Amino acid sequence: MTITPLTDGTTVEVVEHPSAQERAERGKRVRSTAARSSHAAWEATPDRRDPVAILEEQAETRLPDLVPIRYGRMAASPFAFYRGAAAVMAADLAGTPRTTLKVQLCGDAHLVNFGGFGSPERSMVFDINDFDETHPGPFEWDIKRLAASLEVAARSRELDRDTCAEIVLESVRAYRESIREFAVMGNIDVWYARLDVEGMMRRWGREITSTAMKNLQRTVEKAETKDRLKAKARLTEEVGGQVRFRSDPPLLVPAEQLFGPEDHQQIFESIRGALRSYRHSLSGDRRRLLERYRFVQLARKVVGVGSVGTRCWLALMLGRDDDDPLFLQVKEAEASVLEAHLGQSGFANHGHRVVEGQRLMQASSDILLGWERVQGVDGRVHDYYMRQLWDWKASANIETMEPATMKVYGQVCGWTLARGHARSGDAIAIGAYLGSGSVFDQAVREFAVTYADQNERDHARLVDAIARGEVQAELGI
Hints:
Number of domains: 2
Number of strands: 15
Structural class: alpha+beta
Oligomer: single chain
Helix content: 40-55%
Strand content: 15-25%
């Protein structure tokens, strides 16, 4: 893209359109500055930052009473630590060889941040489902994050070294082959590409056992019941004839129990105002839908691992009657952990950054996904994005997944990531860079092994910090 001046003194952005051959040649030239085999490299330098110090730095902007829950969850296992340590890995990736082949990165593409959810057409689709750290950057950072997560997860199941290697290699191979498939597709065909349950079965059904097939079907059936009515049954109760949030501290706490009357009224009105104004980040038809719901109550909810401590609210809204609820998650968006290493976001609002990254990478996004700013009781303005809480959400159960199923799951994640990168980056150049051989696959596999070793040391460092009283942790919450 270039900026061209006009005769009236203004400028216009001109999008360049090099030929497919020129784009492929560009991808191959990148090998001279970032060899595919160089991606195997990882070694902790003497001046590597203490991982606990990085986590403590993140904690400075988070709610102090929730940070111990984050540490407790991360301390549970090396895999749990990995899930919460995106900032640690971003700092480590900054020192590794990198390409100039940029895409919209998920920024935290570990295997649990993929899953199923309901499309607007009411079918179950599989996609990336977490974009808090999304940011433009070199495509291989997402691949390394995914590959290392598979290695860490496979080790958590006590799988042998060869099985771990196969799981990681198959995922990276799936990414490489898929990005090359997208490279020969028409642009609009790439945009329409998505993965539903039927598509997964056609592509990978022969590789999983009948037991795994039955488990998948049960997961889909269960997910299709995980909707706003299930949320109402799980999260609310009737109080004085009215629907109200249950109190389950510290995981779910109605706002009126967190603050005095004055502060509660202030945050309630701030969220009410944000819900009104965030409508302008939606399309006209979806804005009309949202306007049919009235804001009733607010609660704070603890979610995930890495996100714990950020401000996350649930807004209870009601439509035609009490049996027509809508639960909106109002989730704080801070700066991506990638910004310190890849440059500042181009968006003034980090909620806007998250939403645009999600819309760009996902084939089908939540119809009520939008963003706004909210004045907090701390006197500061915080960026937020909004989305539905539950919409047929399905997640992989790593603890019970068979090795053969984990191998297929890694391939599904690889395909999905390739599709997201093909939508946002140059699939032809990336495909040409990767080539038809397994050089890149083997290099990333070697990186994943070495980094999983480092992750185990970092997890041990956190556990030791908790034992020494350097940080406070709430275990088992």
